[in-house]
Amino acid sequence: MAQFVIGTPVETPDSAVEVTVSPDLPLAVGKHVFQLVVEDDSGNQSIPATVEVVVRDSQAPTAIITAPTQVEFGQSFRLDGSKSSDIPPGKVVKFLWTMVE
What we know:
The chain is an all-beta fold and 101 residues long. 0% of the residues lie in helices and 14% in strands.
């Protein structure tokens, strides 16, 4: 397991490494490029190999509406979506309101 910092190599004796992330240190949504250089027992290094990894946010946010269950005829009322949420680091940025009945 390793926490990667841009531009800082992570050296391992193993041929595989786990990219460790946490809620406090996630990889941002978007494209990330990782590079591998291998070295033999004579100290010769390979040409770098690279791979692109796209971190995507595929978790749907949760919509929550707070509203009165009854109002007087002719009176305005408020619909409140402020308790809606997304899994961090995502955030709700738009509210689309529709009367469906």
